[in-house]
Structure formats: C-alpha cells, structure tokens
C-alpha cells in the first residue's frame, strides 16, 4: 500500500505541474505575440489589458460561487474557453482594422478568463494532495513563463512559422489539461488526502480557555494601537505643517 501511495503522490505532483504549466503558458504566448496581434501602430498595452483584466475579475468574483461547480465541469469549461480563444485569435483576419483587432481581443479575453478560473481552481485542488503538489503547481506556473516565450520565438524566428499558425498550434495545448486531470491525476483517496474536518466541542472549550488567557495580550495590543494612532496623527499634522515650506 505504501508503494501505491508513493506512486499516486508522484502522479499527482506531475499532474499539478502540467496543470500549472498549461494554465499559464497561453498567457505568456499571447503576450509574446502582442506585436504581431495588434501591429506597430497600436499600443501593446491593449493586449496586456485584455490578457490581465478578465482574469483579475474572475479571481475577484469566482471564489464566491465556483465551489458549487464540480472540478470536472470546470476543467472542461476552461479547456473550451482557452482553446476557443486561441482559435479566435489565430483565425481572425490578418488586417489591422477595428473588426480584426476587436475579434483578437475577444479571443485574448476568453483565454484570460480560462487562465484566471484555472488558477484559483487548480490551486485549491492542491489541498487534496499535500504540499508536494503545491510545490509542483508553483513550479509549473513558473516554467510557463520560460516555455511560452521560448516556444513562440523558436516557432516564429527559428523555423519561420507565421504568428497565426503558431497560435493555431498552441490551441491544442488545453487538450493536455484534459489528459492531466481526467487521466493522470489520481483520486484524493489514493493519496490519502483529507478534506477539512469539523471541530468538536472539546476544541471549542479549548479555544475559549485560550481566549481568556489571551485577553491581557489583546488589551496591551489595543493600548499600543491607540498610541500608534496618536503618533500617526501627530506625524500627519507635522507633514501638513511642513507642506507650507515646500509648496508656497
């Protein structure tokens, strides 16, 4: 049984590494292709905003409801969003007109939504597989920065593949996410992963005793906080008075 558990832990770490890598690599590839996507006349920050803002809002809002969605459903949705976004980007018209630009930015936004949702979901998934899987996930996200930029430069500069063809090929990467989750990743039971457990009444009593013992410390902290606030107010007053010396 011990060898089975060790093997399952290795598979879970390998799976989390791949999930972290694939989830972030498209983000890096899109940024590497920013110049080719929008041309030289449009600020590259437009691509950066389309690649960052949707992901940010997903991370801001999704934690309040995404726990009601099964992990398998999430993974399928993330794969569909990221692959669809890359297909939209790669198959958009080659011109630099407004329609082409908006279409590409929509594809970038879809991939960004997938990346943001995948990051908070797969990071939470490491809870069931221990610290080793968390380290593997972090390593995969870090490796995505190097691998994504290297792949794009290698394909476009070394082998002379067009930007659209390179992005079209990258749309196949999310399929590896499906394989990593549904095929390679073992069940939490195989690694003896445990979820959160309820706290019994004895633990509550112990917490009450600790609260009583900690009350003097809290009082001293409150006193120190009050003193710090007075010092902050005096500092603000001094800065306000010194303002007249700098600004007439």
Shape: globular
Q: Could you give a short account of the major beta sheet?
A: none
Domain module count: 2
**Cα end-to-end separation:** 78 Å
Order of helices and strands: HHHHHHHHH
The residue fraction in helices comes out at over 70%
Features:
single chain; globular; Growth Hormone, Chain: A; 79% helix; 2 domains; mainly alpha; 248 residues; 0% strand
Polypeptide structure, described:
- This protein is mainly alpha-helical and 248 residues long.
- The protein is built from nine helices and no strands.
- It is globular and about 50 Å long.
- Mean pLDDT is 80; it is low at 193-198.
Summarize the model shown:
By secondary structure, this protein is mainly α.
Give the topology.
Elements lengths: L1 H31 L1 H5 L6 H17 L9 H21 L6 H28 L5 H28 L4 H8 L2 H12 L16 H46 L2
């Amino acid at each position: 049984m011990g060898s089975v558990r060790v093997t399952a832990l290795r598979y879970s770490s390998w799976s989390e590494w791949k999930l972290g890598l694939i989830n972030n690599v498209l983000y890096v590839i899109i940024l590497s292709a920013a110049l080719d996507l929008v041309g030289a006349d449009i600020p590259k920050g437009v691509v950066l905003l389309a690649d960052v803002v949707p992901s940010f809002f997903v991370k801001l809002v999704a934690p309040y409801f995404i726990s009601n969605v099964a992990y398998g459903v999430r993974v399928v949705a993330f794969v569909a969003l990221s692959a669809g976004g890359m297909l939209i980007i790669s198959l958009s018209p080659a011109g630099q007109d407004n329609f082409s630009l908006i279409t590409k930015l929509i594809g970038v936004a879809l991939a960004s939504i997938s990346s943001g949702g995948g990051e908070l979901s797969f990071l939470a998934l490491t809870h069931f597989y221990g610290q080793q899987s968390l380290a593997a996930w972090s390593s995969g996200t870090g490796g995505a920065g190097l691998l994504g930029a290297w792949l794009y430069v290698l394909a476009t500069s070394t082998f002379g593949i067009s930007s659209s063809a390179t992005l079209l090929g990258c749309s196949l990467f999310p399929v590896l996410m499906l394989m990593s989750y549904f095929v390679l990743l073992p069940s939490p039971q195989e690694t003896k992963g445990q979820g959160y457990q309820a706290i019994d009444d004895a633990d509550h009593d112990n917490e009450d005793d600790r609260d009583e013992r900690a009350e003097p410390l809290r009082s001293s902290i409150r006193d120190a906080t009050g003193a710090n606030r007075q010092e902050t107010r005096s500092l603000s007053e001094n800065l306000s008075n010194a303002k007249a010396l700098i600004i007439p």
